[in-house]
Amino acid sequence: ETGVTQTPRHLVMGMTNKKSLKCEQHLGHNAMYWYKQSAKKPLELMFVYSLEERVENNSVPSRFSPECPNSSHLFLHLHTLQPEDSALYLCASSQDLQLAGGEEQFFGPGTRLTVL
Amino acid sequence: TQLLEQSPQFLSIQEGENLTVYCNSSSVFSSLQWYRQEPGEGPVLLVTVVTGGEVKKLKRLTFQFGDARKDSSLHITAAQPGDTGLYLCAGGTEDSNYQLIWGAGTKLIIKP
Predict the structure, then answer these.
(1) Among A109, A77, A107, A73, residue whose Cα is nearest residue A93
(2) CB–CB contact A100 B30 (8 Å)
(3) pLDDT in tens, A25-53
(4) Distance from CA of B75 to the nearest CA of A (A)
(5) CB-CB: which of A42, A56, A102 is closest to B98?
(6) What integer is the mean pLDDT of A58-72?
(7) Is the pLDDT of residue A79 over 80?
(8) d(CA A31, nearest CA chain B) in Å
(9) What Cα–Cα distance (Å) separates residue A65 from each residue in A68, A74, A116, B31?
């Protein structure tokens, strides 16, 4: 595997379910991100990790819980979600936290989440 | 609230035509990136511009950063069906090393 991988690619869950999204990067990067992508809206940054420490939690509801066990893996644990949480969830990584200077982010293919 | 207004939101044209996509803001950016996202995939970086007035070319794609570093444009010459996708712009600011300002995207369809 190369680049950034995400599993599952598609997920349908009820509002009372608990599920987890997984992201793995094979690039040796130090920073990892979770984004939410909804149609016709800008990407929403949810969480940022640098060297396995959470740097940012952008006022995300507690029904989303991130976990970064090591610099290559990132999880997003989901529980009691709402229908408006249906979206494409993208994981990304970058070498370091230098996005302001134009550092490249590498994105996974995303998990298409549908909450019934 | 910092915003990056992207236009048009949707564009469908015939193969061989030219087009321009715009990103505009009232904020000054330290860098401006353009990404392309194809269906079922994540965004992929096309270009980064960091200097006001900078112009970069990538085959038939020309990217320009405004002199004041508040806006950018993407021009495609002789569009091909392979150019079809969602084009996203994202600006970096001195306020944060990890929070980019994203445009809402331009969905581009090139018909053969």
Answers:
(1) A107
(2) yes
(3) 999 999 999 999 999 999 999 999 998 89
(4) 20
(5) A56
(6) 93
(7) yes
(8) 9
(9) 10, 11, 20, 31
